[in-house]
Design a protein that fits this description.
186 residues, 3-stranded antiparallel sheet, 11 strands, globular
């Protein structure tokens, strides 16, 4: 009986260690739940296939934890709500097929099918991958009123949305590359 318990304990520890090793600390699993309020998201594979709707807990971390996970530019943009320079960012001129995930939590937020060239120097989209996967909030910074776009799962600042986009929505989700991680379709 003791051997069975010992073997079960070793198996559990080993499985936990394998899961920990397989999980990159730089990018949480898309299905990872946090300690915050529950939110409803739509989960997607890295190939852009809609998997299912899911209720998960928000990812809530301290600034110190986010700083350990993110580069200084990613932290400045996604957590401190900064804006990167136009035409000098990773995805403004990206034309490959794929999906864009939140750099902080891995939540699928946008995809290449809705991306368009806005001539602004930032990646722009006319719609999110799913409305449930983002949130919007009033932003009164810089002496003007704008609508901020946030990741619903971790509240990362992604960019802003404007009413000067193309059909069919007329929206321009103007995002920061530093808040995104692109996964190219295979």
């Amino acid at each position: 009986m003791r051997w069975a318990l010992f073997i079960a304990a070793i198996t559990l520890v080993g499985a936990g260690a394998l899961l920990w090793l397989a999980h990159s600390p730089d990018l949480p699993l898309a299905s990872e739940s946090g300690t915050g309020a529950e939110v409803n998201l739509v989960l997607f594979s890295d190939q852009g296939q809609r998997l299912r709707a899911s209720s998960v807990r928000k990812i809530v971390r301290t600034d110190a934890d986010w700083r350990r996970q993110l580069t200084s530019e990613q932290f400045a943009v996604a957590r401190a709500k900064s804006t990167e320079f136009p035409f000098h960012n990773l995805y403004w001129d990206q034309h490959a097929a794929g999906i864009y995930r939140c750099v902080c939590c891995g939540n699928a937020v946008f995809r290449s099918q809705e991306k368009f060239d806005s001539d602004t120097g930032w990646p722009s989209f006319w719609a999110p991958i799913e409305p449930e996967n983002i949130a919007v909030a009033k932003d009164l910074s810089l002496g003007m009123e704008r609508i901020e776009v946030l990741c619903r799962k971790c509240d990362a600042h992604l960019g802003h949305v404007f009413d000067d986009g193309p059909p069919p929505t007329g929206k321009r989700y103007c995002l920061n590359s530093a808040a995104l991680r692109f996964i190219q379709s295979k």
